Structure formats: C-alpha cells, structure tokens
Amino acid sequence: MANVLQTSFLPSTSSLRRTPISGSKGKSQALQVKAKIREIFMPALSSTMTEGKIVSWMKSEGDKLSKGESVVVVESDKADMDVESFHEGFLAAIMVEEGGVAPVGSAIALLAETEDEIAEAKAKSQSSSSSSHKVVEEQPKQIEETAPDVPAAAAPTVSASKTVALGSAAHPASEGGKRIVASPYAKKLAKELKVDLGTMAGTGPNGRIVAKDVEAAAAAGIVAASPAKPAPVAPGIELGTVVPFTTMQGAVSRNMVESLSVPTFRVGYTITTNALDALYKKIKSKGVTMTALLAKATALALAQHPVVNSCCRDGNSFTYNSSINIAVAVAIDGGLITPVLQDADKVDIYTLSRKWKELVEKARAKQLQPHEYNTGTFTLSNLGMFGVDRFDAILPPGTGAIMAVGASQPTVVASKDGSIGMKNQMQVNVTADHRVIYGADLAAFLQTLAKIVEDPKDLTF
Amino acid sequence: MHSICSQATAVPRSNFAFDSHAPALPTSKPINLRFCGLRKEAFGFSGLTHSCSSRVRFTSRGHSKRISASAENNGTPPKSFDYDLIIIGAGVGGHGAALHAVEKGLKTAIIEGDVVGGTCVNRGCVPSKALLAVSGKMRELQSEHHMKALGLQVSAAGYDRQGVADHANNLASKIRSNLTNSMKALGVDILTGFGTVVGPQKVKYGKVGFPDNIVTAKDIIIATGSVPFVPKGIEVDGKTVITSDHALKLESVPDWIAIVGSGYIGLEFSDVYTALGSEVTFIEALDQLMPGFDPEIGKLAQRVLINPRKIDYHTGVFATKITPAKDGKPVTIELIDAKTKEPKDTLEVDAALIATGRAPFTNGLGLENINVETQRGFVPVDERMRVIDANGNLVPHLYCIGDANGKMMLAHAASAQGISVVEQVTGRDHVLNHLSIPAACFTHPEISMVGLTEPQAREKAEKEGFEVSVAKTSFKANTKALAENEGEGIAKLIYRPDNGEILGVHIFGLHAADLIHEASNAIALGTRIQDIKFAVHAHPTLSEVLDELFKSAKVKATALSHVPVSEPVAV
C-alpha cells in the first residue's frame, strides 16, 4: 500500500507543494542551506533521465552513513546505479519507498546530521509525504501528525481508531507466540497489504495460511457494494483536507479496482413480500431478524441453483462451492465488513438469527475471526432500512454473485384479473460474474427466490 | 592472437574462421571437413586450438597418416589391446571423448551401465531445458503487463502437467537416440554393463547375472559422472521429498515446495515451479542466496528472480531432518542455524526438492585394484586429467573426466576434458583452460558467466600485483532487448586495464547463456579487449550488449601497441 501512497510526486517540503515539479530542484536546495537536515535527491544518472525508480534502499532509517557510502540503488532509463551520500550523517527518513518513482531532483530521503535530529526529520518527511500525492490540490492543508513514533513509511492517519488492522479481527491475545504457517506468497501479500498473519486462520492444507486468506482478510467486509460504503461524515473531519486511506480503505479501493477485471452483469426482480412480512411479524418475538430470513430464503434458492453459488477462480473453470455461506454486508466505523452465515441453507432460522446477532456484536467489537468474514460464497447487501428502493452492487472478487436488496414498500399493483390492489414489494438486483453465471441462471434463481419469499413456509420448517 | 599464428597474419582481424589455419596445417584439413558436419563443436574447438594456442602443437605427426586411413573404420586394432581407448560412462563427457577419439583414428569402446547420455541428457540439463522452455513461455503469457506493453491480448494461460512432463521426456529420448546414433554411425563400440577397472589397461564389464567380459585398452577414461547429493537426515521418498531426478519427471506440481540449496539446480527449478503456480521456499546454508555467482549479479538476480516471485527464503540454516509427507501430515523440515547449530525453525510444506549439489558416482569402479583412493568420492587427477594414485604418482594410461573428478561439474566441461585427454593420448600435449569454460543458469532471464568473479579477480590481483577494472553495460540500453520488452539485465566485464586481458564476464539478462560465448572464446584464445572491441556485431542484436561492454572498457594506452597475448593457462 505504501507504494500506492508514495507516488512519484514528491516535492520535499510543504512550501513546494504548489510548484511544478521541474522547478523543485532550485528551491529545495535553497532550503537545504539553512537546515541541518539534508535531503537526498533523485540524481540524474544520464542526460535523458527525467525520473528514476528506487530499486532498493541499501540502508534503513536510523543507519549511520559516511560520506561516499552507497545509500540507494536507482534505476534510470538506462541502468541501475548505486547512489552515494555526499554527506555524513544518519538516514533519518525514507520518502520514496522501494519500487517508487521520483522525478530527477526531488528529495527521496532525509539525512540528519545528528541522531537527535532524526525525529525532526521524520516529522518533516511525513508532513510532506501526506501531501505528496496531491500536488494539484489547491489548498492542501496539512494533517497534523502528532504521533512521532509512527514509522515514516506508514500512511498518515486521521485518527487512531482507523488504523486498526484489517478486518479488525485482531484478538489481542490470539495465539500470541504460536508459530504461523503461511505460504511464501501469503507472507509477501500480507506484508504488502499490511495484514497481520497472526490474526488469521488459514484455509490451506493443514490450516496453512494461503494467499487467498490474506486477500480475503484484506478485503474483509469491504467488498460489498460501493454505494453501501457510508460516507464518513463523522464530526472530526476537516473540510478541504486530503485524507489518505486507512489500511482498510486502501484494501477496499484495491478490491474495487480489481473487480473491474470481472465481466459482470445485473438482473433485477420485484418480489412481493406480504407473506414474508407476515411471517416476520409472527416469529419476531422469537428473536428472528429480517436479515436472517432473507439470508435463509436466499440460501434455499441457491441450493436449487448451485451455479449461482459458484465462482470463477482462474478464468478457466467453475468452482462449485460445497457449502452455501451467505455473507451480509454491515457498515462499521470507517468501512464495511461482511459477517458470514455459514451453511445458511441447512441451519434453522432460529439458530441462524442467534448466529447473526452474535456476528454483529463481534463485528462491532472488532472481534470477528477470519473464517467469520471471509468464507462467503454469496453476498447480500441490504440498504432497505435506509429507504433505498433499488441499487446496484459491485461483485466482491472471488465470489460469483451479490444481491442488492432494496426496501419493501407498499405498491399499487394491477393483477391479471384486472383488479388493482396494494402489495408490499421489494426490488432485488443481482450482480454476477458472467464467466460462470449466465442470464438464464440468474433469472431462474430469482424466480425460485421470489417463490420462496412469496410462500415462506419453508423458511421455518 | 594473430601474432602467434604467423601464417594467419595475412588474414585480417576476423581470423576466427577455419580458413586462417588451413594453410598452416594442411594435414588436418580433410579431417575437420569430414567431421564438422557431424559435430560442430569438435570442428570449432580443435580448429581453433590447432591454429591459435601455441601450447597445442603437433608434437607427433606420425598419427596423421593413420587418421586418414582409418577414420571410417574405427581404427585398426592394435596388436596387444582390444581397443585403443575405453571410456567408462556414456554421458556427455564420454560421448565427446569418444567422438574425438574416432576422429583421431582410435579404436574406441564406450561402456554404459545405465542409459546413453548420462545425467545431462536423461536427468539433467536436457529435460530441465524442456521444463524451462515451458516456464519461460508461461511466464510471458502470464505477465499481463508485459503482454499489454507489446499490445498483445492473451486469454488466461494454462498448462497440462502431463503434457509438459511428456515434452521433457520426449526431448531426453530424442537427444539420447541422437547421441547413440552418432556414436554408432562412427563405429564406436557401445558395451552394455557396469564397468570396473581390474588392473592397468584392463576393464571388466557386464550386466548383473551375466558373466563378465574383460577387455583391454591402451588408455582408459573414467567418465562415470555423478548422482544428486542428499545430506544425511533427509529421507527421499521420490514423491514428496525428491531430488532433481524425480523433479524432472514432473509427476506433480505441489502448491508449496521447499528447495534446499539455491545454486543452479535450485534456481532453475524455482523458475519452473513458480511459473507453473507453485510457491517456493529456499533453504540455503550460506548467508547469501545464490552463492557462487558474482555477488553483484547475484544481487540483481535476487531482485528479479526471487523478490517479485512467490518465493521466500531462509539463509544461514541447515535442513537437518526432512520427513516425507505421510498419513495426511505434510513434509516437515527441521532447520538449525548454520553457525550456532541451534534449532531455528520447522517448516511444513507440500514437497521438498533436494538441490544441495551432486556427489561423484565412483563406487564399484575398482579403483582399489590400481591403488587409487577417492577423495570424498572424487577421483584425484592432475591438470591433464591423469589419475593420481594413493602415493601421489600418476597412474599410466588412466584418465578421469567430468563430474567424477569434480574439477568443474558441467557437461561441456566434461566433454572438453575428454577431448583434451584424447589429444594427449594421440600424442599432442594439451591442457584445458578451465577459466575459459562458460557456465549458464537457464532462469528467465538467464545468467551466464566465464572466468573469475569480481572478488576472485581482486584477490588474484592483490596476490599477483596487478590492477583490476570493471566495466558494465545494461540491457536497458540495447535496442533488441527493448524491442522484446526485456530490458532487465546487465553484463559485467572484469579485466586488466594494463594489458586488456579479460578475467571474467558475467551476464544476467535475455539470452545470457547464448551471449557468453563471445567472451569465453576470447578468454580461450587469449584475445584482448583492445582487439575484440573492433569486432563487428550485427545491429540490432543482443550481442551488442557485449560489444558495448568491450568498448566501454578502458585499457591503458601502453597496452594498445602490439603486445603478444599470453597463452591460456590451465587452472
């Protein structure tokens, strides 16, 4: 994620934010004269070089540098070259991470003369890097970074609560010292996505954590419909600021972009809910929730249409999931999570409702276990409670279909016998991966679902 | 170089050609013509050494008559021996020696206890190249970024494991039959069975359960090769804990495979497995991955071949115990710290490939019959591949080439050593310059090298008191590489600025394995940078990477006047 944040536009000081890149060199040098904290610039390694890519940092933050020592390997348009330090000091802050690109002459790191100045340099680098990815922003106001111990590489955050690890399944005491078995790629991904492997349950052979577990954890709960993403109009937000994504929001963004590679299409259906509403009224007192009823109905319909419960993992095959696990999108502070009702077709409605309550509580307390939010095979997103009558959901990568459920509303309906009556109707809209699920499949599935909802006696068995 | 071959001075600079030595050595001309069609390397090698290495001289011209008389009839049997030359082992080394021996008019037999072609053809370089060809193509097809940059659209690439395995197997069979046919066509006797030295100039061979045959020969070459080395504590079951022998059959593509050892074999397999979808964990006893490569090349290779792929690694650790998977339990690998010997970690993986090197295959050779003691299994030899006995004396008429002597465990080195031995037994002294033997690792992109690494060169320079310089060029600046969208890679030249001698060349990049030969030939022939930099390269080709490399070297002006090039020196 750091790679995403550390874009190529890295003017070194806040004063330079509004200046074009080409002019940055002279000004920052002027600044360098009075500062004890020096900047290490992207050098021009060839006459045609305009920008360079950081291949690797040979020193870490805090390392002592002597004059002439190689600090960083830079890739130009022609070759990889070691860049040496012209001064003695300490590498205080790395401003462009490995893999990042910076224009010639822009600062890529800060060099502190003494160890004491490292913290000061770090703060400086953070303030500049937080603004860095929006050079064009007219009035970028700095987000005050108060915690000096946040590593410079980490994205500046708005509030501490939002830095909580992905999925927030972080059990504080979860299997602390236990050995983590994770595949090489899972480890790499976890590092890249900044997901803690220690908080994750593996689904690979022998409980090993594999890449898809990490991806699922990163995507946890944030994969549902983007319209469902609540605009965080929390009080502490300063207008006119640029706020970098939290880890979770970064993962949402990544997943949303990834979803573009899946060819999706949508099929909608209007379902009469009078019978369902009546049933709900009847068993509400027994703790049954509408969400559980909808999940149950969906699961029963899926049981008759296994293809809608399938997914396409590799672009070459159908993966028919052995169980029907209904993930339901829930908005939580600053993001989304999708607790999963496992085997929703088999579990009875009362147990399912209890399970749902438990999951929601855990989600609020950020205590969901990975298997409780990343094992969904079909997703439900319900905005009906906000009065939304219809919307459209984005398919979470790794699943075959998602259903957007609107509000059930009294509607004037003309029936075939010519009479006009009032019925409660809701609109559902399924988004599916057309590589495995075709229009006729969805149509048949929706027909089944409508039948179940309109005659819901099977839901309670 | 033309300063040595006085006859060739009339031929300008590009005197690498056959023509240049033809007027000098008329007797060798018909022979070379006859055999060059069958075996290109024999033509190239002998032609060049005849003409340009003053170390190789026609000390005995007597045999030349016999050559022309007997070239087609596998020699005339000598009075007292069954054969002029018996080679034990029909791998690439034995094959190279046999072909050259026939060319030299020797009546030759080759004893093969297993299959013709040995490790290289059946369980090594050849089938692995088939797998690597597949992995290279998979890699290309899977790299969306790469394809997009070329403007190509490819739908999801997939593979059929059995199809890939068959390709490797078919290639091995084809090369094996080519090898067998080439020897048969020349009249080399192929004797089947396990060969044992029973006394001076005497070998017995035979299959198990059959009576042994005893044959005599004026000279004997041991070329029995090597087998995968498996450290103790590691239990190989051939299914989940495997060596390269099993891996080349590609009976499975595990989700997660640990590769013990990050040398050539381990690296190549990591390339294959990751391209086919496996994840890989390297276990390396030394502190650095890819020991043995020039450190700078190793660093870059790690950046390209390891870091961006689904590979992680443990360095500075030994795998003390590896237990195959059984009863639903995965393969377990116990690691200890290489220095402190403290237990460090336990890995649970789906499979483990043991690529910790190769051990000489010299048991049962009957070396005790002639008072030879192997050293860690290797047959001790001098620089002319002559076997040395327990008292330090040379054993007459007995030679050992290839992996069995451990000098340089490469197929083409074995072949070169075999040719060198044949040169000697046909009366011409010859010493092989091992520093001119190139080596390659067929990852994507490839790594190749010849001569010394930079640290080795600097050490030598300090000892001998000369200066060392390094020149580098990048594939990024090469038109052809950019056209292929494969600009990743460098070439590195280590040389003496005082006289222009090439000490080592290391290449990492597209087709590096094919590019190295300009450098290895230059080292073999003693060509200096100031001379080779005038050689012309077709544009645009990858070879211009080396062209630019030689041109970027800064040789001191004093060396530019005609200084005779020194002779290749044996190492």
TrEMBL record, chain A:
<feature type="domain" description="Peripheral subunit-binding (PSBD)">
    <location>
        <begin position="181"/>
        <end position="218"/>
    </location>
</feature>
<keyword id="KW-0808">Transferase</keyword>
<dbReference type="InterPro" id="IPR004167">
    <property type="entry name" value="PSBD"/>
</dbReference>
<feature type="region of interest" description="Disordered">
    <location>
        <begin position="121"/>
        <end position="155"/>
    </location>
</feature>
<dbReference type="InterPro" id="IPR001078">
    <property type="entry name" value="2-oxoacid_DH_actylTfrase"/>
</dbReference>
<protein>
    <recommendedName>
        <fullName>Dihydrolipoamide acetyltransferase component of pyruvate dehydrogenase complex</fullName>
        <ecNumber>2.3.1.-</ecNumber>
    </recommendedName>
</protein>
<feature type="domain" description="Lipoyl-binding">
    <location>
        <begin position="37"/>
        <end position="112"/>
    </location>
</feature>
<dbReference type="InterPro" id="IPR036625">
    <property type="entry name" value="E3-bd_dom_sf"/>
</dbReference>
<comment type="similarity">
    <text>Belongs to the 2-oxoacid dehydrogenase family.</text>
</comment>
<dbReference type="InterPro" id="IPR011053">
    <property type="entry name" value="Single_hybrid_motif"/>
</dbReference>
<dbReference type="InterPro" id="IPR023213">
    <property type="entry name" value="CAT-like_dom_sf"/>
</dbReference>
<keyword id="KW-0809">Transit peptide</keyword>
<dbReference type="InterPro" id="IPR045257">
    <property type="entry name" value="E2/Pdx1"/>
</dbReference>
<dbReference type="InterPro" id="IPR003016">
    <property type="entry name" value="2-oxoA_DH_lipoyl-BS"/>
</dbReference>
<keyword id="KW-0012">Acyltransferase</keyword>
<keyword id="KW-0450">Lipoyl</keyword>
<feature type="compositionally biased region" description="Basic and acidic residues">
    <location>
        <begin position="134"/>
        <end position="144"/>
    </location>
</feature>
<dbReference type="InterPro" id="IPR000089">
    <property type="entry name" value="Biotin_lipoyl"/>
</dbReference>
<dbReference type="Pfam" id="PF00364">
    <property type="entry name" value="Biotin_lipoyl"/>
</dbReference>
<dbReference type="Pfam" id="PF02817">
    <property type="entry name" value="E3_binding"/>
</dbReference>
<dbReference type="Pfam" id="PF00198">
    <property type="entry name" value="2-oxoacid_dh"/>
</dbReference>
UniProtKB/TrEMBL annotation, chain B:
<dbReference type="InterPro" id="IPR050151">
    <property type="entry name" value="Class-I_Pyr_Nuc-Dis_Oxidored"/>
</dbReference>
<dbReference type="InterPro" id="IPR016156">
    <property type="entry name" value="FAD/NAD-linked_Rdtase_dimer_sf"/>
</dbReference>
<protein>
    <recommendedName>
        <fullName>Dihydrolipoyl dehydrogenase</fullName>
    </recommendedName>
</protein>
<dbReference type="InterPro" id="IPR036188">
    <property type="entry name" value="FAD/NAD-bd_sf"/>
</dbReference>
<dbReference type="InterPro" id="IPR001100">
    <property type="entry name" value="Pyr_nuc-diS_OxRdtase"/>
</dbReference>
<comment type="similarity">
    <text>Belongs to the class-I pyridine nucleotide-disulfide oxidoreductase family.</text>
</comment>
<dbReference type="Pfam" id="PF07992">
    <property type="entry name" value="Pyr_redox_2"/>
</dbReference>
<dbReference type="InterPro" id="IPR004099">
    <property type="entry name" value="Pyr_nucl-diS_OxRdtase_dimer"/>
</dbReference>
<feature type="domain" description="FAD/NAD(P)-binding">
    <location>
        <begin position="83"/>
        <end position="418"/>
    </location>
</feature>
<dbReference type="InterPro" id="IPR023753">
    <property type="entry name" value="FAD/NAD-binding_dom"/>
</dbReference>
<keyword id="KW-0274">FAD</keyword>
<dbReference type="Pfam" id="PF02852">
    <property type="entry name" value="Pyr_redox_dim"/>
</dbReference>
<keyword id="KW-0520">NAD</keyword>
<keyword id="KW-0560">Oxidoreductase</keyword>
<keyword id="KW-0285">Flavoprotein</keyword>
<keyword id="KW-1015">Disulfide bond</keyword>
<dbReference type="InterPro" id="IPR012999">
    <property type="entry name" value="Pyr_OxRdtase_I_AS"/>
</dbReference>
<feature type="domain" description="Pyridine nucleotide-disulphide oxidoreductase dimerisation">
    <location>
        <begin position="437"/>
        <end position="548"/>
    </location>
</feature>
<keyword id="KW-0676">Redox-active center</keyword>
